[in-house]
Amino acid sequence: MRGPTVTFCFDHFGKFPSAFKLSHLLLIVLFLLHAAASFPALLQCANIEIVSPAECRRDYSGVVSDNMLCAGVREGGIDSCQGDSGGPLVCGGILQGIVSWGLEECAQPNKPGVYTKVSKYISWIQQTVRRG
């Protein structure tokens, strides 16, 4: 591995820490808003909020499954974008989501980013790591 690394914990119970429930998450990505012509020298971070599953399903006409979670800023302007897939969504030092998908035009109002819900895959992650 080259360059600095950051370590996050997994949530073994599949729940947000109570102090952070429906609150702020930290998104760490290369791009925010719109894809840039070149990679920035530093990772970009943004504080965003959890969007309820019901709101997210409504925003995306039911396409969002239980294996996904949504987060963003309702009024738009802050979002992950093309090139950010695989980036971490962290709450209280615990990895909660992985940047998955969104609209082609990033950071639109009422269109939060969609993330893979890590808690749904903890067993698979543990089995895969054990196998080496």
Explain what you see:
It contains 2 helices and 7 strands. With 132 residues, it is α+β, with helices and mostly antiparallel strands. The protein has a single domain (9-131), classed as Thrombin, subunit H (Beta Barrel). Strand 5 (88-91) and strand 6 form a beta hairpin.
In the residues, how many domains can be counted? 1
End-to-end distance: 17 Å
How does the helix and strand content classify structurally?
Answer: alpha+beta
* Percentage of residues in helical conformation: 10-25%
Helix and strand arrangement:
Layout: E1 9-10, E2 24-29, E3 44-51, H1 53-59, E4 68-72, E5 88-91, E6 94-101, E7 113-117, H2 122-131
Parallel strand pairs: 1-6
Antiparallel strand pairs: 2-3, 2-5, 3-4, 4-7, 5-6, 6-7
Jot down its keywords.
single chain; 132 residues; alpha+beta; Thrombin, subunit H; six-stranded antiparallel β-barrel; 7 strands; 13% helix; globular; TRYPSIN_SER
Summarize the structure.
It is built from two helices and seven strands. By secondary structure, the protein is of the alpha+beta class.
